[in-house]
Amino acid sequence: MKKILFSLAFASVCLFFGSCTSTKSVAYFQNIDTLDLSNTRGLYDAKIMPKDELTITVSASDPSAVSPFNLSVSNTLGSSGNLYTGGGSLQTYLVDNNGKIKFPVVGEIHVQGLTKNECEALITEKIKPYLSKDEKPIVTVRMASYRVTIIGEVGGARVVPVTTEKMSVVEALASAGDLTIYGQRDNILVIREDANGQKSAHRLNLNDASILSSPYYYLQQNDIIYVQPNKVKTVNASIGSSAQLWTPYLSIITALASIVVTAHTVSK
To answer: Whole-model pTM?
Structure first.
């Protein structure tokens, strides 16, 4: 009987230590002190993609000269069918599947793949022929917020709006409550769709500080981040799903073992 109890205790200890996650697999950026991060220098600029919404304003010393380039929304139709006044809010421009916008007076402009600054410079050149030589227009482009999706072993799966035109994978995970203890930190999956609609998958390792120089460290429009569960969570889930099936049998086995032990004690 003592041997049985000892075996059960030993198995429990092994299971406990086997389920523990080492610090080596949990800590982020472990080798950061040994890396040269000089190649990470430079500020990230999001690039315009199809389905982005842009707000574009053109200003000049003579506002009337550039007013044709500043469309405003005066009236909108509400969900109830009532007409509302927009108060002169600026018209947004939807980038079509070909990467173009329809800009007043100028017509179609291809903006796909451009940064905000590049788009401003392009539009400035496009509208100059319609203004006097003394007029120096100032074009301001803003990208409407886009979103990224975080699912898997995180504090809370969610769709995160990006309002600053820039978000890193670390910021996105933090906004979702960070990884749980069961999340694979060395196997973060990023699913990305490019400007042509082609989807691709990429793996990131949060344990390795070289992630800071990865082209996928900063997220793009509509990226999906999936945190895969580790082996411990997978095993626990498997045990949990089969527990209900085996519980009645374990109860019977336990009862029979109790009867055998009692009978053995009485016979002595």
So the answer is: 0.70
* Three-class SS of 5-36: HHHHHHHHHHHHHHHCCCHHHCCCCCCHHHCC
Taking the C-alpha atoms of residue 131 and residue 106, their distance in angstroms, rounded to an integer, is: 12
Whether residue 182 contacts residue 233, with contact meaning beta carbons closer than 8 Å, is answered with yes
**Per-residue pLDDT averaged across 186-202, rounded?**
93
Closest CA to 117 of 24, 48, 14, 178: 48
Residues 169 and 188: beta-carbon distance below 8 Å: yes
User: Which residue from 100, 97, 266 is spatially nearest to 195, judged by alpha carbons?
Assistant: 97
Residue 18: band (very low, low, confident or very high) from pLDDT cuts 50, 70, 90: very low
Question: CA distances (Å), 127 to each of 103, 135, 160, in order?
Answer: 10, 11, 36
CB atoms under 10 Å from CB of 162, counted, come to 20
Asked if residues 130 and 123 have their Cβ atoms less than 8 Å apart, the reply is no
